[in-house]
Amino acid sequence: MAFASVFLLLSLLAVPAVYGVDHTVGGSSGWDQNVDFTNWAAGEKFVVGDNLVFNYGSSHSVNEVSQSDYTSCSSSNPINSYTGGKTTVALKETGSMYFMCPTFGHCGAGMKLSVTVAAASTPTPTPSTPTTPSTPATPSTPPKEDTPPKEDTPPSSPDSPSTPTESPNGAVGGFSSTNKLVVGVSIVFAGLMGLMG
Ligand SMILES: [Cu+2]
User: pTM for the complete prediction?
Assistant: First the structure.
């Protein structure tokens, strides 16, 4: 259980470390008319380091514009303009970016896109932690506890003199399971310390 939760923790932290995702604008339809880009963008999670990939026919192009130009469909003052059928735009910073097709009438018909770019989470200490929870401590501890219970049995034997073998076995079992618990808990702490450090 302890190991499982540590590994779950590590894997959850490791997932955001994956490199930038390419978001193909409009999916298989691409950057085209009759695509609801607001709806498409709502299904995507944009993070710094990701890319927008525009695939489009010769009647279209891509302008990055201000929010007000996006709203008014004005193509007269683009921040960037791209042509050529395939454009990759890197999402370099958090905040909103706005795009439209400057071909007459297309933006007004809905060929416009706004994306909100979130910060990338940076899990730097992850590489060092997976080595810490390896379990060399577990096999060494139960043998140490094997001897004390046997020596303990003579004083406690008045209770059950007929079965001296059962009580050491039970004691050993009890001890070793608590030891496993202690080892498990300490490994979780070691894991957490590793994550914090
Ligand atoms: Cu167009």
Answer: 0.55
